[in-house]
Amino acid sequence: MKAFVMQGIGETAIVEKERPEPGPMDAILKPTVGLICTSDCHTVHGAIGDRDNLTLGHEVVGIVDEVGSEVEDFMAGDRVAVGAITPDWNAEAAQEGHPSQSNGALGGWKFANVKDGTFAEYVHVNDADGNLAPIPKGVTDHQAVYTADMLSTGFAGAENADIPMGGTVAIFAQGPVGLMATKGAALQGAGQIIAVETRENRKELARVYGATDIVDFQDGDPVAQIMDLTNDRGVDAAIEALGADETLQNCIEVTKPGGTVSNVGYHGEGEFRHIPREEWGVGMSEISIVNDLCPGGRVRISRLLRLLQAGKVDPRKMTTHEFSFDEIETAFEMMDDKRDDIIKPLIRFD
Amino acid sequence: MKAFVMQGIGETAIVEKERPEPGPMDAILKPTVGLICTSDCHTVHGAIGDRDNLTLGHEVVGIVDEVGSEVEDFMAGDRVAVGAITPDWNAEAAQEGHPSQSNGALGGWKFANVKDGTFAEYVHVNDADGNLAPIPKGVTDHQAVYTADMLSTGFAGAENADIPMGGTVAIFAQGPVGLMATKGAALQGAGQIIAVETRENRKELARVYGATDIVDFQDGDPVAQIMDLTNDRGVDAAIEALGADETLQNCIEVTKPGGTVSNVGYHGEGEFRHIPREEWGVGMSEISIVNDLCPGGRVRISRLLRLLQAGKVDPRKMTTHEFSFDEIETAFEMMDDKRDDIIKPLIRFD
Amino acid sequence: MKAFVMQGIGETAIVEKERPEPGPMDAILKPTVGLICTSDCHTVHGAIGDRDNLTLGHEVVGIVDEVGSEVEDFMAGDRVAVGAITPDWNAEAAQEGHPSQSNGALGGWKFANVKDGTFAEYVHVNDADGNLAPIPKGVTDHQAVYTADMLSTGFAGAENADIPMGGTVAIFAQGPVGLMATKGAALQGAGQIIAVETRENRKELARVYGATDIVDFQDGDPVAQIMDLTNDRGVDAAIEALGADETLQNCIEVTKPGGTVSNVGYHGEGEFRHIPREEWGVGMSEISIVNDLCPGGRVRISRLLRLLQAGKVDPRKMTTHEFSFDEIETAFEMMDDKRDDIIKPLIRFD
Amino acid sequence: MKAFVMQGIGETAIVEKERPEPGPMDAILKPTVGLICTSDCHTVHGAIGDRDNLTLGHEVVGIVDEVGSEVEDFMAGDRVAVGAITPDWNAEAAQEGHPSQSNGALGGWKFANVKDGTFAEYVHVNDADGNLAPIPKGVTDHQAVYTADMLSTGFAGAENADIPMGGTVAIFAQGPVGLMATKGAALQGAGQIIAVETRENRKELARVYGATDIVDFQDGDPVAQIMDLTNDRGVDAAIEALGADETLQNCIEVTKPGGTVSNVGYHGEGEFRHIPREEWGVGMSEISIVNDLCPGGRVRISRLLRLLQAGKVDPRKMTTHEFSFDEIETAFEMMDDKRDDIIKPLIRFD
């Protein structure tokens, strides 16, 4: 089968690989639609170290091709979604309430990290009963594929922010995760949703997904703008969706005492992140700093599919470009450059 | 000044009363717009015992007429909203996180319970800094008056239900509190929102406020219908917004193990409510039964006003009738009878 | 192998059975020490319906005899504990945070319910990696066997009660689960711990496990006594550890507005449990009614073992009687009659 | 009256001042016993900026001397405790659940910050009903004075750490706050309590208060020692009770994915605190960083007094030195130097 792989840092290629085989609890999935993620680009640039011939990709939906002997709830032919994170559900961290951390920090992240990812003609999914979700009628593959990471991660940013009904929130950066954090804040009942962004098409989409105010950092210090918009009280919660030191600091600076800073950005560089001591209230401000790795699993993905089915969110507006699997190298390069106002490139496998 | 009072069980009248005086932390409010609540009717019928010459009403907005000597944040002329519940914020229950229960069970409920209510030309509000909220520009009195009880109580029903993002919920009865619980469930990110109701105009409004499914109990057992709609899994949460024994039992019956039953109905009659033992999992199903008295206070009301300001909810669709203060007895009778498909009657004080 | 079984309602016997075989993820355990539970008696009396030749028992520790091909963390010869509840960790309810409810209400309860229990020479344990826990050095089998149910259930009663540090709690009934709820309340930092009981040896043990006050219902209405002990404020939380309608009502009656009623009693009889409407604050008191089925799993059991290892609790004081496996019928009868001030009878398998 | 004051940075003196007068909701307290806190020393050294003639001290108990006209629950002659933090209970932050942050960051901290502190013959307490707590019979002034700050702050460190029953925790530094965090961890049911300290008398006291393991950083890297003690899994929670950058980093390094870092140290110096990016899981480890300012108020202090009354904690072991009020300058200097293995110096006012 064909697979789109990383061949050492900075190198990608389409290669031939063996079709994977399922263990007793696993499934083999035949992808129909996938998405490229900025973190695929990070990976190729070496963010998680070198990899040799590792298939890339973690956002995909498709058709079950084969299941292992112990799988009970799925069979070949089922149309399914699968999370970017596929936890080991009996692991200690999962029992502790953190399935994404099963078997070590970020251990639920298997695709394109510790095993082959989803940009291939066949994809191995561990624990099919625990990690696949049937796609309901009326939900297209194009919609469903957004549950794997963008909806799950973005919404988690909003859920962890613990925004009170009618409360105030600022979301730093409106890439696809930030946009879904903005939508997530709306779905959590936030009353004032301040989106920080400078690109025009992303600012527009932020409005579509529920932002009540836009702060463009090219118009001046975003912290000052947000304090103005909140009558100098600061926000109940701030969401970091970029992965940068400065925006994390900004989040702490705009959050009121007792509020929450919720990180979903992937912090790929630097030895430290910096907490500004005074704005942190010398360690006594009751500001919490929380974070998450994309929640996965059958229940999570099924809930997100239910929101799509009910029409509560339409993620397709983020699909700015479409490609066939043959064109994936071009798609990957465009995503890497953020060329042509790209937000999410969709890959069709047929 | 004129006041609409209860003169013993079953008796109401418009009478002359002395204008109240503020204590050092209090304010006197001149109402502009009010709403009649079904619980006013319950009160007149004796639900909380006899009352002599007690002014009725607890849903109002208006203009500050006078403030006490220690009030810092408000002055005469301010346009303000006030919750139906006006807690004593330094009381033990408030410090314990339950301000509505300050000074005894339901002790934050003062209007038309332990002191004169809001259907008068002047209204006394305890702890003005703690219990008034400025109405922002762009929010009309007609919108704002819904924060006092309907939005606060209905939304609390949804917040306490602990509905996971994309989860499933059933709301029993679509009176104004139930409708706002439905809207609250939508604002909390529910994926499937099943509204139980039989009156046509309420069923329509439920759709407007976010219901994805309507269950009409005249079409058969609502429990069976809800189990059908959820593939026999039951809902993550059920909200009781009627105050009846049967619907509370239904809530337990449709809630999946580990789910939540959230009561906001006012249970006015009977010695007991009944928990069906087997559906309760013989006390081991991990179904929680929680409830709330309408949250009040400056922060709560301000957050709800922010939702109105942002256009996230339009409660005016529930105003089926309007009256002048002179006509309040007619309005009260119609509400008591639920005549003419009435949902909420609005009272204008000018 | 020998097994102690239920042969229809009211009938028990020691019989010969086939030794069980492990599936790929399972283990076979050779018991060393077990405990008889009152719920074994309930089962024999028909509480969960008829059973034919079902091995009884769910509290046991022992030595791993064999593991399935996929088991990673255990091998023959390991000394291990296992919870009374052995969840399916990838099931939907487990992913929702309720592993004890995996695969339907109370579905994690497999031993002596849907499969053979632990009173046999060999015991089948599903998902060994997820459900076994190594017993640390310095913890005896006699101590460790209490983690299976008594510590896990009793402590859960206290944990779910959400007792604030220094808060007040009443625990109704001081059987072994109630005693461990009392100890659990002490371990959760309760300031006033009121144990309700009438048997002398249980009252004494309640003191040992941390009760600050004893209420004997033979001295008068326990509700009145508890209100007296709390200056008429009521308790922050009440724990039901008996499984009776009257004590559940008492729990609601003694709990202050905003408090929690935490049920761990097994309610074996009757169509309904009764919520007293007025003491429930007509559905607006903010009293929560929660419950639990004994938490199981490797993490839970390991944490409980850690408490034993650190000497934070000594459950052996509850072992009033000891028997060999040959004498289990006598032990069972004594437990059924609650003869000779029995609290827990220990079974030795060697 | 006499008062011990700060007269500019680095200067203290005993001076004569006017006795304060109560506002309508306030009380005047006549101290009997006080404690000196290291943060008094920080204040004199300029940590919160310059102050002129500000009375020092925030830990005291005493007798009510006079109450304002609106005070309901206290009268002259009452023996009472008062928290170091005395919130404005109707403020927005208090309504949001963060009373210590009322009226701005750390705004509930009034004594020796924005108004005169407690080292004087008479002390003004705002909102007597909300902020005083009666001392129960059987609790001495010497015990009760520890509720003001040491018990409240230390225990908060443990409560916020969200330690599961039987879980593991490391507490960095065993000064009086750290010792009470250690005791708090024990009272929250921790199973393994690792205290980090190097002074012998503090290590001994840590054992007394519940530590199961001691890590002396003079014996090597405390992070490595803690990883060893936890079989390389890390702890469920780490508590920072020193206020240093390095220990905060250590906390993040020893906390397992999904765990909690709970800060109660006062971070008095430096522009930033540093989050080690990799150990933080590149922002996706699900490690939360939380913090607290000493909780105050009648309910909090009453709960802590209840723990003293029940004998669940004896803080007097921390009192290494005693002085009369006349000798307070000597006491202050010893505390500043941490001379003679001082932990807490007690001041007697009679």
UniProtKB/TrEMBL annotation, chains A, B, C, D:
Matching PROSITE patterns: ADH_ZINC
Protein origin, superkingdom: Archaea
Cofactor dependency: Zn(2+)
Gene Ontology process terms (BP): small molecule metabolic process
GO MF entry, a single one: adenyl nucleotide binding
SUPFAM superfamilies, alphabetized: GroES-like (SSF50129), NAD(P)-binding Rossmann-fold domains (SSF51735)
Pfam family, one: ADH_N
The UniProt record lists the keyword Chaperone: no
Protein name listed in UniProt: NAD(P)-dependent alcohol dehydrogenase
Naturally occurring in which organism (per UniProt): Halapricum salinum
